[in-house]
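Reopening this ticket.

The earlier resolution said the output was attached, but the attachment link was broken on my side. Pasting everything inline this time so it's all in one place.
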Amino acid sequence: MALYDLGATYSTGASNLPSSSIKAGASSNVRIYEIAVNNNAAIACSFGFGRPANDGSVVQTGTTSFQPESIADPAAGVKFATTWSTAPTSPSVFLRRGAWPATLYYGFIWTFPRGMILFTNKDVCMWNIVTATAAMQVSIVVNE
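Inline output:
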């Protein structure tokens, strides 16, 4: 297994909608170790992180590949997306929640010390609980 990283800046969209998703590839499980999120605009936000109700059925479009920490490692199968042809639906229970005030660059870090396991072809998503459209930055560390 190898470590992979991803850093992205994107807009969250409207309230009560998914803002991003992570999907494991078809050939290997993924362990998520860290998700760091910060506000790239002075807008108050409330987010949740969890398995969507339609876990495994999300179809990502416009994906971004995670990058290996070692150039000797193979390309990652795990993908990150902010657009979908079949979008994630709201998790019934959030694994993590976070919020920030209308303060530029305010943020938080969710850690999973043993790695949150994401099985092949399964999904997790960031859910925009309550906010106007906001710009955010995210950094994610996974093991695949």
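Reporter confirms the inline version is readable. Residues 3-96+114-136 form one domain. The chain has a mean pLDDT of 91.
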